[in-house]
Amino acid sequence: MTDRHPYWQRLLRITQGMALVGFFGLLILAVMTTLDVLSRWLFSAPIYGVNDVSAIVMAVVIAACLPANLAARQNITVDFLGNLLGWRAKAFFDGLGGLVTLLFIGLVAWQFVPYTIEVTRSGQTTWVLKLPIAPGWWIATAFLLMSVPVQLTVAVFDLSRAFGRRPDGDI
């Protein structure tokens, strides 16, 4: 399977749609912050609750962008050894790194679930507006859980390259 495979292209489109949700949330935060700063400067009156909304929306923004980051392989890698040992070793190290990333994302997602359940049970709210924070955490948790199959796909794809044909078709 290559980066041009229809499955891969569909995965990229889906994760980019999720990231769009995150960027829309970031836009909302930027507008709210700008209005709050202008209100403080012009009228010496802050907009109450901006920090409350920011605390909820920021978790969703970050989690919504994570699947697209993983699918596009935009995480930091060190390719020195793989480049030195050849394309097959590089693909193997990419796959191994993908598995380690999968393990990490899986552990984080696994820990988000009980935390989100606890936030829901306790009925936690924001300080000023008393908004319930559980809905935001459920959305963030859902996005984070979606990152797991995305990273699994990336890791399998990279490992399959290590044991397949050379990118130029030679063995």
Q: What is the element layout, followed by pairings?
A:
Layout lengths: L5 H38 L6 H22 L8 H6 L1 H36 L11 H29 L9
Helix pairs in contact: 1-2, 2-5, 4-5
Strand content: under 5%
Tally of contiguous helical segments = 5
Counting helices, strands and paired strands, the structural category is: mainly alpha
Instruction: Tell me, rounded to a whole number, the average pLDDT.
Output: 91
The main β sheet shows up as: none
Helix content: over 70%
Overall number of domains: 1
Structure description:
The chain has helices at residues 6-43, 50-71, 80-85, 87-122, 134-162. It is an all-alpha fold. The protein has one domain. Helix 2 runs parallel beside helix 5 and helix 4 (87-122) runs antiparallel to helix 5. The radius of gyration is 21 Å and the shape is elongated.
Question: Which tags fit this structure?
Answer:
171 residues, mainly alpha, elongated
What's this entry about, in short?
It is built from five helices and no strands. It has helices at 6-43, 50-71, 80-85, 87-122, 134-162.
